[in-house]
Amino acid sequence: MSGGFREAVVDLDAVSANVARLREIVGTPHVLAVVKANAYGHGAVECARAALAGGADWLGVADIPEGLQLREAGIDAPVLAWLHDPDEDFAAAVAAGIDVGISSAAQLEAAAAAGTVETPAFVQLKLETGLSRNGVPASEWEAVVARAHELEQSGTLVVRGLFSHLSNASPDDDRAAIAVFRRGVDQAEAAGLRPSLRHIAASAAALTLPESRFDLVRFGLAIYGLSPFGPESAAELGLRPAMTLRGRVAAVRRVAAGTGVSYDYTYRTATETTLVLVPLGYAEGIPRHASGRGPVSIHGRRYRVSGRVAMDQFVVDVGDAEVAVGDEVVLFGDPATGVPTADDWAEAADTINWEIVTRVGGRVRRSYRGGTA
Ligand SMILES: *Cc1c(COP(=O)(O)O)cnc(C)c1O
Question: pTM of the prediction?
Answer without folding.
Answer: 0.97
